[in-house]
Design brief:
Number of helices: 11
Distance between the termini: 18 Å
Structural class: mainly alpha
Number of domains: 1
Shape: globular
Order of helices and strands: HHHHEEHHHHHHH
Largest sheet: 2 strands, antiparallel
Number of strands: 2
Low-confidence stretches: none
Helix content: 55-70%
Mean pLDDT: 91
Length: about 280
């Protein structure tokens, strides 16, 4: 079921009709497995009706603004696991990468996985924006920033350099790509930053989206909020320079994977104000 859900997300940018068919099969499997209950189905039915009206009946501007606000609000609720009716699969339960690392749990998030489907209904350019500046040498700088931000956290005393190769690395990568990073980048870069860019300077839109992304991690403490906001700048630049959501997702995954492999994950045990926000629940 989870591999099918990941496949649907992978196809969503290129073959949306195929992605929707696979999603339907996945939803049926999720009902059978008890991952979804009637509350999730009730929300899904209402979201489906709104999506059909939005896509096929071309409502007026007022209706479009209202429905987009409802869909974005739903996407945020799904991202924060506030929408009832979802019983995500716990893959790892309070594991420690090293003795001095804070324990964390890992989930396959069905609710978060639905975020790109929801947002694509109200913004067809979610995955690709054709009007973007062409850049070259800046990419090297952005790549250097991936370990750079982790070194900054190390100098601040939140992390320590150490090498890990956990046996659950494949599960971590799958969860991070499809059930965490894609949803968060779809919401904050693909939608929020893109919409803000239509009304203000792109750099200001980038900063606002990054600050909101940092605020998303409030449960992890003030240090996690700050470092998440800095990471949001990296992801926002990746989206702004490429115009492609998947590029931002790859940078997001690169930061998380680099930390897991070469630094304390998610933080040193003694660090206050940087508790793990978790990957679902």
């Amino acid at each position: 079921m989870w591999e099918l859900l990941a496949l649907a997300l992978l196809l969503l940018a290129f073959r949306p009709k195929w992605a929707l068919m696979i999603l339907l099969v996945t939803v049926i499997a999720a009902i059978i497995e008890g991952v979804l209950d009637w509350r999730a189905l009730l929300w899904g039915g209402m979201a489906g009706v709104i999506a059909v009206i939005q896509l096929y009946y071309k409502p007026g501007k007022g209706w479009r603004l209202l429905t987009e606000a409802l869909m974005v609000g739903s996407a945020l609720a799904l991202t924060l696991h506030l929408m009832p009716g979802f019983h995500n699969l716990k893959v790892l339960d309070s594991v420690q990468v090293s003795p001095d690392s804070q324990p964390f749990s890992l989930y396959y998030n069905f609710d978060k996985a639905l975020v790109p489907f929801v947002l694509l209904c109200c913004l067809k350019s979610l995955f690709y924006t054709p009007n973007h500046p062409r850049v070259r040498w800046q990419w090297l700088l952005l790549i250097v920033c991936v370990p750079g931000i982790l070194l900054v956290a190390t100098l601040a005393g939140a992390l320590r350099m150490e090498f890990h190769m956990p046996v659950w690395l494949p599960q971590f990568i799958m969860a991070n790509v499809f059930f965490v990073a894609l949803a968060e980048e779809g919401l904050f870069r693909g939608h929020i930053q893109q919409r803000l860019t239509q009304f203000m300077h792109p750099v200001l839109a980038l900063v606002i989206a990054a600050l909101l992304f940092g605020a998303l991690h409030y449960k992890g403490g003030i240090l996690l909020v700050l470092f998440s906001a800095l990471a949001g700048i990296i992801y926002g630049l990746a989206w702004m320079w490429s115009g492609r959501l998947w590029v931002a997702v790859l940078f997001h995954v690169a930061v998380d994977l680099t930390q897991l492999l070469f630094f304390t994950y998610p933080a040193l045990m003694h660090v206050s104000g940087m508790a793990p926000a978790g990957h679902g629940g």
